[in-house]
Amino acid sequence: MIAALIVLVVVIRVAPLLPALAAFFGAWWVWEWHLLTVLAFAMPGIAIGGVLLLGMGFETLALARKLSSWK
């Protein structure tokens, strides 16, 4: 009986917060999936750009070595 009263009081005190909590977690869920979707579409471009930059770095290093040994 006392436990039921405690649960009732807790439910009555927490009930006004439920819409705010639902809105917060709903917005967080949408934001998380939006972020994952953006990353899923952006990652191939980031990976290709990184490979191109790495390739250009190796080309520059090879050119610098070639020019430094050339007399």
Describe this protein's structure.
This protein has 2 helices and no strands. The protein has 71 residues and is mainly α. It has one domain (2-69). The protein is rod-shaped and about 95 Å long.
Strand content: under 5%
Question: Roughly how many Å is the radius of gyration?
Answer: 29 Å
Helix content: over 70%
**Helix-strand category:** mainly alpha
H/E element order: HH
Name the average pLDDT.
79
Tally of helical runs: 2
> What is the CA–CA distance across the termini?
97 Å
Let me know the largest β-sheet.
none
Query: What is the total domain count?
Result: 1
Oligomer: single chain
Shape: rod-shaped
Kindly state the number of beta strands.
Answer: 0
Q: Note poorly predicted spans.
A: none
In short:
This protein is an all-alpha fold and 71 residues long. It contains two helices and no strands. It has one domain.
What is the topological layout?
Layout: H1 2-14, H2 18-69
Keywords:
mainly alpha; 0% strand; 71 residues
